[in-house]
Design brief:
It is built from 6 helices and no strands. By secondary structure, the chain is an all-alpha fold. The N terminus is likely disordered.
Length: 164
């Protein structure tokens, strides 16, 4: 019973989020730059010296975006839910934007690795865990999607708030 309730909550949350994103997307497409413009903007900025922490942060960010894209692609292949395909496309855009920083600063480009392959061993294990869980059922796949968003967006924002 608990799994059914959690599944319903996850599905409702995703559906509401998709509806909000669709409406927000109409507004954002008129008011914010698209990913291609973002990449051009990043490339136009002067290169500043980076600390090792900044370099490592960029490398981790690009692999997190790759992980999200790769997992969503696998979930789409497994369940053919359009939400997974759409999010995978968005994650590709995020990855391309962060990759523009990798290229700007001549950092090792892990995005050339095939799907599901990562330089960071922790992200490699996480990828395998998430894909295996997401292949069990549609509900588990939706939960994996929420887990990814928590790891990539919510957890880092909480850490930022704590630092401020």
């Amino acid at each position: 019973m608990k799994k059914i309730i959690i599944g319903v909550v996850v599905i409702v949350t995703l559906l509401v989020g998709m509806a909000m994103a669709k409406q927000r997307g109409k507004w954002m497409s008129r008011n914010f730059m698209n990913s291609s413009q973002g990449i051009i903007y990043v490339k136009s900025l002067p290169a500043e010296p980076l600390s090792n922490v900044e370099k490592n942060t960029i490398l981790h960010m690009v692999e997190e975006e790759k992980l999200a894209r790769d997992v969503y692609q696998k979930l789409y292949e497994a369940w053919k839910l359009p939400v997974f395909g759409n999010i995978a496309k968005s994650e590709q855009k995020h990855m391309n934007l962060v990759k523009s920083l990798v290229e700007k600063y001549n950092l090792p480009n892990s995005t050339i690795n095939p799907p599901g392959k990562f330089n960071n061993p922790e992200l490699q294990k996480l990828y395998e865990k998430l894909v295996n869980k997401g292949k069990k059922s549609v509900i588990e796949a939706l939960i994996v999607g929420c887990t990814i968003e928590d790891l990539v967006w919510i957890k880092p924002l909480k850490m930022l708030i704590i630092r401020i």
